[in-house]
Amino acid sequence: SIGGRTEIMKVFITRRIPQEGMKILSQAGVCKVSLWDSDEPVPRAELLKGVEGAHGLLCLLSDKIDTEVLEAAGPNLKVISTLSVGFDHMAMDEIKKRGVRVGYTPDVLTDATAELTVALLLATARRLPEGVVEVKNGGWSTWKPLWLCGYGLSGSTVGVIGLGRIGMAIARRLKPFGVKRLLYSGRTAKSYAAEVEGEYVPLDTLVSESDFVVVSCALTPETQGLCNKDFFSKMKNTAVFINTSRGAVVNQEDLYQALSSGQIACAGLDVTTPEPLPTDHPLLTLKNCVVLPHIGSATYSTRGIMAELSANNLLAGLQGTDMPSELKF
Ligand SMILES: O=CC(=O)O
Q1: Which of 63, 89, 93, 253 has the maximum number of C-beta atoms within 10 A of its C-beta?
Q2: d(CA 213, CA 235)
């Protein structure tokens, strides 16, 4: 504040975001927004230029927020608000060191992401993309007793790796399909798992006993590459593998081997490494692998609410007040 007049703070936004978020920022009258006005990612050089002297940064999960970005921003930086629940794209140690607060968007995307996970699981297990292609290319010759058969949830065992907010929402939705046993693994047993009759088991037990293995954990040093050759070799060869968390939890070469050798039945992925997955990637040659372009939270309503929440997190960080969703780390 100079002469009693409050200085307008500077904010950089790394992409076009839903207007619900932009409106909150413009109406607040506390910051001057500069925006990478595109649906495509900001080039690294533009990001480094854009954050210069910024008090606030609103970013996406596709922006790598590392030491270089923090240094480029400089000492003004008070807050980073990410339009995501995941925060593996940010160098948290470096952010903490600099006393920068972080906002994120948990809860508001839980239902949309759980819904997408169920959709992907059913599409993968019942081979929907293959069926759609056959109808269009004339492969549908007649009703055949053994054609396009897959796997059903009724009487099955489902294993959820990471029974957090989203994992629990997935479990709640899957149970009514007639799931017999709901296993989960993670760092700790959860008391709320009782609602879905969840059994806390060692990862090995989950992997070897489940008909559906659903990955819903955060990407951390502990979960990076968790689903590897050893993991897939313990799965049933009739089992379905689903990942809607982060691509790097999976060793994709090992997954390719498991799918192409018949070690496991099929896989549905909403997340990959890298993103986008190159169109000539081996996984995309497999009929038993369904890959989606990271659309877990992609409903109009959810994305609008995420934009609102990330704008309000940013404003609170600028003004030094309580954030609606502050990441405590
Ligand atoms: O992957 C999406 C998110 O982290 O919000």
Answers
A1: 63
A2: 9
Distance spanning both ends of the chain, measured CA to CA: 30
pLDDT attached to residue 3:
56
Q: Is there a contact between 208 and 240 (Cβ–Cβ < 8 Å)? A: no
Span from the CA of 141 to the centroid of ligand 1 (angstroms): 41
Our measurement of the distance from residue 260's CA atom to the centroid of its chain's CA atoms, rounded to an integer in Å, reads 26
Q: Report yes or no: 162 and 216 within 8 Å, Cβ to Cβ.
A: yes
Question: Which residue minimizes the CA distance to atom 2 of ligand 1?
Answer: 84
pLDDT in tens, 38-48: 999 999 999 99
Token duo for residue 121: 């699981």
**Residues 103/83, Cβ–Cβ less than 8 Å:** no
pLDDT value of position 184: 99
- CA 257 to chain centroid, in Å, comes to 24
Q: Which atom of ligand 1 is least distant from the CA of 246?
A: 1
- Indicate the Cα dihedral angle 141, 146, 148, 149, nearest 10°: 160
* Ligand 1 center–CA 105 separation, angstroms: 8
Q: How far is the CA of 196 from the centre of ligand 1 (A)?
A: 24
CA distances from 264 to 88, 140, 147, 197, 256 (A): 28, 26, 19, 26, 10
Protein residues with CB under 6 Å of any ligand 1 atom: 61, 84-86, 109, 296-297
